[in-house]
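Predict structure. Chain length: 214.
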Amino acid sequence: KMDEDDDDIPQLSSHTLAALQEFYLEQQQREGMKTSQEFNQYSIGSIEEDWQLSQFWYSDETASCLAKEAVVAAGEGGRIACVSAPSVYQKLKELEGKDFSVCILEYDRRFSVYGEEFVFYDYNQPLNLPENLPPHSFDIVIADPPYLSEECLQKTAETIKYLTKGKILLCTGAVMEEQAAKHLGVKICKFIPKHSRNLANEFRCYVNYASGLD
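Prediction complete.
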């Protein structure tokens, strides 16, 4: 009797079964990819640099060094702003769990994946900032102006001076040393930042406080 009942259960053809298995496998792979992307969304290289936007990511070692310097400089419960310095921001996010908060000001809207911490920023409008960024609300500002020009540095400097309570960490070309001192009162450090791809221009770091980069 039971055998007869079993015969009434509809059986899937081997072709349909194979198609179904393939569908489930693809779905699992998609979910797996999504999970790994979420897990790695803060790691350097999760967003590729765009040369047309004058983006050049720091090497992993440099980004790590600058991020750790920012955390120490900001102090316990400190606030850090990364202005056009996304690879430092990404490294700071990897250090999460430490007692600090961070914000990224960036022209490239791909970084909006970072949610509320992302602020769209165009250096041509240096003070066009949202209300939730009041003046002098960051313990340290790390900035890497996208272009090696005095105009770009001068406008970015307006943003930096508006945001910082005092401490500034600037990364730009060695040729900008005079202008950096003029617009931000920063001095060159011994630490030499490196990029994941070598740049033709010599790059340096500048600070206006006693840092661990000397």
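Summary: The radius of gyration is 24 Å.
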